[in-house]
């Protein structure tokens, strides 16, 4: 016999599978319920409909992005940290394009509670800030460190956005990655002085 928590997980697993296969276009309460082997009422009782599922997928996407940005010192530090961080961000986009589209390409007002949506994204940015703080001066105020983090994110996000455009395919993927690594290093070296 399934518990409420089992059913909730089945719904999330079904939503993830459909989302990964078909993106937002294929995601409907009926499709999720069918895939999970539950009724649409079951989906509504756990998530209050599609909006609740989208919010759960949005939160999951930012949690995964936070995981990618959370690099312990024993894994990489110093000169090795920037390339690993940049490559993890780009790989996140490559490996989770539907999540990326939901996180950065959708009107967030469709997800509901604006404060909650903002706090989900902020938690991921704070994990990136914690990783980057190892490359910044120790006396840098927290708000300045967050500004630097935002700038690094803009560079990485800009790479992904430009790379998606057909006109920007004149370089190999490795060359593009090298460009964004160089840009992030340059930005951070300016902040360190």
What are the key terms here?
single chain, 193 residues, mainly alpha, Arc Repressor Mutant, subunit A, Tetracycline Repressor, domain 2, 73% helix
In short:
The chain is mainly alpha-helical and 193 residues long. The protein has helices at residues 4-22, 29-36, 40-47, 50-69, 81-95, 97-105, 114-132, 142-164, 173-191.
Describe the structure.
- The protein contains 9 helices and no strands.
- By secondary structure, it is an all-alpha fold.
- It has 2 domains: 1-47, Arc Repressor Mutant, subunit A (Orthogonal Bundle); 51-191, Orthogonal Bundle (Tetracycline Repressor, domain 2).
- The radius of gyration is 19 Å and the shape is elongated.
Task: Kindly report how far apart the N and C termini lie.
Answer: 62 Å
- Helix/strand class: mainly alpha
The CATH homology group name of the largest domain: Tetracycline Repressor, domain 2
CATH architecture of the largest domain: Orthogonal Bundle
Strand content: under 5%
**Can you summarize the main beta sheet?**
none
- The strand count comes to 0
CATH overall fold name of the largest domain: Tetracycline Repressor, domain 2
Backbone CA Rg: 19 Å
Figure out the total of helices. 9
Topology order in helix (H) and strand (E) letters:
HHHHHHHHH
SSE topology:
Elements: H1 4-22, H2 29-36, H3 40-47, H4 50-69, H5 81-95, H6 97-105, H7 114-132, H8 142-164, H9 173-191
Helix pairs in contact: 1-2, 1-3, 2-3, 4-5, 4-6, 4-7, 5-8, 5-9, 7-8, 8-9
């Amino acid at each position: 016999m399934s518990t409420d928590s089992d059913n909730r997980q089945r719904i999330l697993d079904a939503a993830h599978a459909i989302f990964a296969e078909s993106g937002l276009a294929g995601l409907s309460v009926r499709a999720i319920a069918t895939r999970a082997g539950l009724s649409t009422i079951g989906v509504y009782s756990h998530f209050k409909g599609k909006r609740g599922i989208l919010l759960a997928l949005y939160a999951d996407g930012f949690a995964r992005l936070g995981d990618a940005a959370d690099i312990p010192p024993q894994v990489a530090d110093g000169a090795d940290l920037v390339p690993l961080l940049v490559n993890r961000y780009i790989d996140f986009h490559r490996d989770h394009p539907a999540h990326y589209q939901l996180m950065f390409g959708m009107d967030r007002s469709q997800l509901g509670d604006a404060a909650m949506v903002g706090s989900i994204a902020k938690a991921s940015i704070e994990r990136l800030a914690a990783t980057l703080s190892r490359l910044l001066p120790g006396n840098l105020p927290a708000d300045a460190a967050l500004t630097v983090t935002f700038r690094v994110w803009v560079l990485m996000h800009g790479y992904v956005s430009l790379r998606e455009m057909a006109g920007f395919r004149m370089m190999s993927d490795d060359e593009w990655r090298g460009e964004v690594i160089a840009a992030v290093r340059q930005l951070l070296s300016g902040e360190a002085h």
